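Changelog entry: the MFS transporter record was regenerated in this release. Current contents:
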Amino acid sequence: MYLADTRAAGTTKGKIGRRVSGNVLALGMVSLVTDISAEMVTAVLPLYLVVGLGLNPLQFGLLDGLYAGATALVRLVGGHAADRWRRLKAVAGIGYGLSAASKLGLLAAGSSVPAIGAVLAVDRAGKGIRTAPRDALISLSSEPESLGRSFGVHRAMDTIGAFLGPLVAMVVLWGSLGDYSSVFVTSFCIATIGVLVLVAFVRDRPPTEGPAKPVPVRSMLQLLRIPGFRRLCGWAAALALISVTDSFLYLALQRNFDVSTTMFPLLPLGTAGVYLLLAVPLGRLADKYGRWRVFVGGHLVMATALGLVCGPFGGWWIAACVLVLHGVFYAATDGVLMAAAGPWLPEHLRASGMALIQTGQALARMVSAVLFGLAWTLWDLRPTMLVVAGCLLLVTLAAAVIKPWEKPA
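Regenerated structure tokens:
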């Protein structure tokens, strides 16, 4: 349904307003608020764990892998539950609520690494539960030919939150004289607002096709029988395996370019700013010229960024280029992959299918974080980055050649 057809957004003007559903905009607002909360914590956590608590790269890799992988299996649970009971909004709300509650857990965790790991696992479990139903809502609320645009608008709004989160954290730390507890409490309050926005403004979109009875578990796995979707899942997981998590990338920039601890929380802002500017244009480009082409191009950009991190050149401008390329990577891959997957999936299994592809990525990133931390510990940073950049380039070129065909919108 178009935005012009919804009462709540009947006064919205302009090209984006005519083509993007009001439900997508409401979900974007939920993500915007939630990401402010999440990024308040994420912006300071890597430096706190490595510099403050003295974790070595392998220990941090294990924790970062847990952070990435905790969403894996619960994504399947969330996606299946949403499709089984045709309650996309309710399942997404449970995930948002769980992540909000976890912010208070950081108050009790203190400096205990195992406790922090457990809290992060709960937070990521909430993210895992909500992501597939939320993306299915976006897909079901959009016209097939404009999926890339809809996901681009949502991701752009999400990124506004990611951009504001570190700034809010710095203001709170400044106002509280460096009290991290104030950051956690403020983060919880903001996350709660996100849940309230979901309840008040997002409308559920039950599928109009498929069986009325609950969907069995085997229906999710049977989606892998669709050749195009199966290839999409396989390449997405393979590319995620040959990758570097955000936390490791920022730590590498901090080490190689001597970024001060005061400026470290601002590094994600460079990525977020570029992502914000390019999410919608690259989504439209993907709709017009092919979503897989844009997705693969994003990984070529990422391989270039990793090469710059470990290259022979120094200076702030190299670090700035890396952050710009990192933002381009996310704008070309995150929502674009979900837009590419949508047309392959029947409406009554949309959340389940998106959960499958996201789970493969999450498991691959978990393994990637651990292996990268181990390699950094054994070989040091520069050779590790060179190996990962080279492998990512090779796998990306293979994905460009042996590509899954795209199903027309």
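Residues 1-17 have pLDDT under 50 and may be disordered.
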